[in-house]
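wait is this the right file?? whatever heres the structure
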């Protein structure tokens, strides 16, 4: 399934060109459009085959994405070999389609940005091999991209966000807090010591069998939990623990929450003698309990990161900014509670539009544009041997030991229910 989201932009730009030509051929306009510098971005780190072309002013020229979500929902999770097979099958049509939509050929592309780290090794390898093949065939440089850096920076494509800023990256594979000082200068303040919030949502939703309800049958677990939680009439009946309360750092943990949620689900299933495809009657309330617990944890760790940045003067008081990104940032309840925190702490809060929070080719091409403008990480086609994938790849300079040592105490912000 291809979604060419930028076809409207393209159609519009062609219309401008056509109307101008109808009146009087304007050759300088044509050559101006043709001489623009274009970056092609490729994303295959997990289960989406994404591609996009941006010009170096940050205009999205075209985009294609092949989403594997439905298949993985049916399989009960991502099976790496299956994801790789689908990337292999769709990488070429996705890239070809993106070029076609942009009305461009590979010759007119200036560089290829591709995700090389972190991610599923089998998936990453498909993107890297295809990017190298294109680079060698058409003599184009490759710009290697760190997937989490791309999540953080893409917010700058749509909004004016200056360096430095604090970022909270929440997805199916990661949970990170970092200060972004420049395009390639990240300082890591906290990370998950086990799983990620999106992974917890997906697992709990699957175990609750939310997919058996038609309205949740075709959406990811996180989105299903958000929608079901909004319908809860008794959001407090399931009490879930706040993780890592005794650790005065900015790290995260979601395994304890997951175990507690699954245990409560199991108890309710026993109590109601639930069988087969049935759901517990209180499924909305359990979703609310899980969502509130995750939100509380995310807000409190972010609050401590803000205090840390203040203490170490890492973020200017007069221009404090928080960027929330990654698939879980689509969650409005989480975002609204983070907005309350930002109001309290005098931060401005930003997040990319939902489709840019999720994995996509645009964020990779945008990171390529930001690096191109600064002449960073541009690897010529003749010199690609050293470029390789990295499944695990830490984000930036590790300041976690300093955060842990600082043991910053905070007066925890109360999470609002009725947002
Ligand atoms: O960033 P992303 O597209 O892929 C990774 O790099 O992991 O994030 C996907 C994750 C999934 O776990 C999905 O359940 C979660 O983002 N997600 C949400 C919402 N929409 C997507 N979680 C909570 N609320 C949502 N509305
Ligand atoms: Zn991601």
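ok assuming it is, sequence goes like this
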């Amino acid at each position: 399934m291809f979604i060419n989201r930028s076809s409207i932009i393209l159609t519009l730009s062609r219309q401008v060109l056509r109307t101008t030509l109808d009146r009087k051929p304007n050759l300088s306009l044509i050559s101006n459009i043709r001489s623009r510098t274009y970056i092609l971005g490729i994303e295959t780190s997990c289960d989406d085959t994404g591609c996009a072309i941006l010009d170096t002013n940050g205009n999205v020229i075209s985009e294609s994405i092949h989403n594997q979500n439905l298949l993985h929902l049916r399989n009960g999770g991502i099976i790496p070999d299956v994801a790789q097979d689908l990337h292999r099958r769709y990488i070429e049509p996705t890239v070809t389609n993106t070029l076609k939509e942009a009305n461009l050929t590979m010759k007119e592309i200036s560089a290829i940005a591709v995700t090389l780290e972190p991610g599923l090794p089998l998936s990453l390898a498909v993107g890297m091999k295809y990017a190298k093949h294109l680079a060698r065939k058409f003599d184009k440089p490759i710009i290697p991209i760190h997937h989490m850096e791309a999540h953080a920076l893409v917010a700058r494509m749509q909004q004016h966000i200056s360096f430095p800023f604090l970022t909270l990256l929440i997805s199916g594979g990661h949970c990170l807090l970092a200060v972004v000082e420049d395009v390639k200068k990240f300082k890591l303040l906290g990370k998950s010591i086990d799983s990620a919030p999106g992974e917890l949502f997906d697992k709990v939703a699957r175990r609750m069998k939310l997919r058996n309800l038609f309205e949740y049958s075709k959406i990811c677990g996180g989105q299903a939990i958000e929608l079901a939680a909004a319908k809860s009439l008794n959001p407090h009946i399931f009490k879930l623990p706040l993780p890592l309360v005794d650790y005065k750092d900015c790290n995260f943990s979601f395994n304890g929450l997951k175990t507690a949620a699954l245990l409560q689900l199991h108890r309710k299933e026993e109590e109601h003698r639930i069988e087969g495809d049935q759901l517990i009657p209180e499924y909305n309330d359990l979703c609310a309990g899980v969502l509130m617990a995750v939100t509380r944890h995310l807000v409190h760790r972010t609050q401590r990161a803000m205090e840390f940045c203040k203490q170490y003067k890492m973020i200017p008081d007069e221009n404090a900014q928080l960027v929330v990104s990654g698939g879980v940032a689509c969650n409005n309840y989480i975002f609204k509670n983070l907005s309350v925190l930002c109001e309290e702490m005098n931060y401005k809060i930003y997040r990319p539009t939902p489709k840019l929070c999720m994995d996509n080719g645009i964020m990779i091409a945008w990171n390529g544009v930001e690096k191109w403008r600064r002449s960073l990480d541009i690897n010529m086609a003749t010199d690609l041997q050293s470029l390789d994938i990295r499944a695990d790849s830490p984000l930036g300079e590790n300041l976690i030991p300093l955060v842990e040592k600082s043991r910053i105490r905070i007066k925890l912000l109360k999470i609002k229910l009725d947002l």
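Residues 1-34 have pLDDT under 50 and may be disordered. so i think its the right one actually
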